[in-house]
Amino acid sequence: MKIAYVLPIDIVRYHGVLNKVSSQISAWEKNTNTVKVFLVTSRDLSELDSTALSSINDKKKIAAYKSKKLGLLPVDLLKDWIGLSSTFSEVLEAIAEFSPDIVYARSALYQPFYGKLGSKYKLVLELNTDMASEYKLQSKQSIKYFLRYIYFLFTKERLFNGVSGMAAVTFDIAKASKVKGKELEVFPNSIDISKYPELDRVKTEKRVIFIGSPGMPWHGVDILVELAKKMPTINFDVVGISATEHVGATKNVHFHGYLKKEEYLKLFERAACAIATLAFFRNNMEEACPLKVREYVACCKPVILPYKDTAFESLGYPDWVLQLPNSEKGILSSSGKVEAFVDKCTDFTINKEDVKKYVHVDDIEGRRLRFFEKVMNSAIESN
Fold first, then answer.
1. What average pLDDT score do residues 85-93 get?
2. b/e map of 63-89 (b: 16 or more CB within 10 Å)?
3. Backbone angles phi, psi at 337, to 5 degrees
4. How far does Cα 142 stand from its chain's mean position?
5. 164: which residues sit within 8 A by CB, 6+ positions away?
6. How far is CA 168 from CA 48, 70, 157, 325, in A?
7. Which of 108, 143, 151, 161 has the maximum number of C-beta atoms within 10 A of its C-beta?
8. How far apart are CA 224 and CA 236, in angstroms?
9. Residues 6 or more apart from 301 whose CB is under 8 A from it?
10. Residues 6+ apart with CB under 8 A from 182
């Protein structure tokens, strides 16, 4: 198959997503497929060399485009709507030249670009979140997010009408899409565990690591801070968020801001375990499969989970995973369990073979490729 991967993303902010994309491409190519990434970003394209996509050997496999923004107004989006030449028209021309069998696109707000893709090619959309719940939650943060939510409500039907298939990362997200008459399957996020070290357990301390992003209320950093207050003998390392966003946090919470992979892996090595997203309940979510948890597991770290993880729901929860209630009250009342789990972490023996079945890329992406073939065949039969 020839697969065009359409990726509209901030290449600096979402380094975990780029790790995932790089792993997916490698897995698809192992199965004798030809892949090309069509990247659209508002960042300076020179920054691409410092991302996970730089690991792709042949740079001809990536076509990168810089989109234009002006304050709250996405210039290229407006041009796309009124039919003027834009970054997205350039991408369409490049995809046509590549002539793919199938187009795979990460979910985004609707625009005519997606409609044109769906009319010309077999388009599979990756559903990474319950967009309705997430956008509604964020709409309270700023006028920009409020306008995005209103735009989503008016255009969501158009986005789903133009696709041939959807690949959801959880069963809950698949149900929330409420789309009928489309091919739909669930594929948890995966990672290439060979790209992560099996960390030395001897060096661990009474530390818990958390990776997050600013402006994401469902990450629940405020809850983590409150939890840390109940456990003053345990240190919490927070990556991706600066201390200025949580002024007054207790002294045992250490904010490191944005770190490159090689930098936060040093913190991983010191940590007894890792803790996952703490407030999915704010998005009305019970189930998820965050990429950061895949990184935790790839490094053979025990994990604290305050929600259902798709991979463990399918295969069972090992003893090195601590489940907490999916609520603020439930998490904060579990401080004793967390403290006991941190003390127990040095007793766990976890290796690459133990974690492979939960998060490794090869099996999951093999299923996704078979789904692509199913979408292609169903489209052919319907003509």
1. 88
2. bbbebeeeeeebebbebbeeeeebbbb
3. -65, -40
4. 23
5. 118, 122, 123, 124, 182, 183, 375, 378, 379
6. 27, 32, 17, 24
7. 108
8. 8
9. 199, 209, 268, 271, 273, 274, 350
10. 160, 163, 164, 165, 166
Please give the Cα distance from 370 to 367 (Å, whole number).
5
∠ at Cα 329 (228, 138), nearest 5°? 85
Tokens of 117: 């893709």
The contacts of residue 327 (CB under 8 Å, 6+ apart) are 281
Q: Which helix (H) or strand (E) holds 253?
A: strand 253-257
Q: Are 307 and 277 in contact (CB under 8 A)?
A: yes
Instruction: Indicate the burial class of 196 (C-beta count within 10 angstroms; 0-12, 13-18, 19 or more).
Output: buried
User: What are 155's two structure tokens?
Assistant: 């255009």
The two structure tokens encoding residue 110? 């609707």
The Cβ of residue 260 has, within 10 Å, a number of other Cβ atoms equal to 10
Check residue 383 and give its pLDDT. 42
Query: Within 13 Å, how many C-alpha atoms sit on residue 353's CB side?
Result: 1
Distance, in Å, from the CA atom of 108 to the CA atom of 8, rounded to the nearest integer, reads: 7
Mind giving me the DSSP string for 130-197?
A: -HHHHHHHHTTT-HHHHHHHHHHHHHHHHHHHT-SEEEESSHHHHHHH---SSEEEE----B-GGGS-
- The full set of domains in the chain, from first to last, is 2-192+361-382 (3.40.50.2000), 193-359 (3.40.50.2000)
Task: Report the phi/psi class of residue 54: left, alpha or beta, with left for phi > 0 and alpha for psi in -120 to 50.
Answer: alpha
- Write out pLDDT tens, residues 127-142: 988 888 888 888 888 8
**For residue 63, what are the CA distances in angstroms to 4, 5, 12, 376?**
10, 10, 17, 24
Q: Of residues 275 and 132, which shows the higher confidence score?
A: 275
- pTM of the entire predicted model: 0.75
